[in-house]
Amino acid sequence: MVKKTFCTTREAAELLGISVRTAQLWVENGQLAAWKTPGGHRRVMRDAVERLLHRPAPVAAPAPPHRFTVLVVDDDRALLRLYEVRLARWPMAPRVLTAHNGVEALVQIGREKPDLLVADLQMPKMDGFHMLRVLRAMPELASMSIVVVSGLDQAEIALRGGVPADIPLLPKPIPFDALLAIATETAALLEAPVTEKTV
Q1: What tens digit of pLDDT does each residue of 102-120 get?
Q2: Of 9, 18, 38, 72, which one is least surrounded by beta carbons within 10 A?
Q3: Are residues 182 and 101 in the same domain?
Q4: pLDDT for 30-72, tens place per residue?
């Protein structure tokens, strides 16, 4: 008995373990070689089915390495540009995101999940004090490192509700060396392997 050199779309679908509709789409986009009979029925080349059956499964591309991400929040556009220029020189070559107030920052944080947040306190719409209270109420962001850089003095900060004790508070002008030290420590913690605790 001579083996047929073609099959119907349904037969091709059964051989490939796909739906008839998928087989039809594969024919239409050229993945399966086929032709139409005078009556309008598709006939699929059996060797095209065989090639698909024996094609090795595609190897998934490795995920791109994580790039350390810093979000800077300040309403001064000139300072934001200065941050971008200076942070671009850091050894870990971070991805630098910016926001002009707490509302923009919260949107960015929800979208990008930065590793380090550098925030001013005096900003329009939502200031840094309010933003920090919102972030502290979100346990899923507990691992995000936060540092405040502000021109306000300690008395003014205390009068307006203060900053959580675990958040470093740095004065302006921007102390880039201190920021780099915090970023380096944060990056090292992210790269450290997680070890199981022994009882």
Answers
A1: 999 999 998 889 999 999 9
A2: 38
A3: yes
A4: 777 888 877 778 888 888 888 877 776 556 556 567 789 999 9
Domain range for 39: 6-53
- Asked if residue 197 belongs to a domain, the reply is no
- For the chain, the DSSP string reads -PPPSEEEHHHHHHHHT--HHHHHHHHHTTSS-EEE-TTS-EEEEHHHHHHHHHSPPPPPPPPPPP--EEEEE-S-HHHHHHHHHHHTTSTT--EEEEESSHHHHHHHHHHH--SEEEE-S--SSS-HHHHHHHHHT-GGGTTSEEEEEESS-HHHHHHTT---TTS-EEESSP-HHHHHHHHHHHHHHHHSPP-PPP-
Domain shared by 127 and 82, yes or no: yes
Q: Which position has the token pair 């039809």?
A: 24
Same domain, 74 and 111: yes
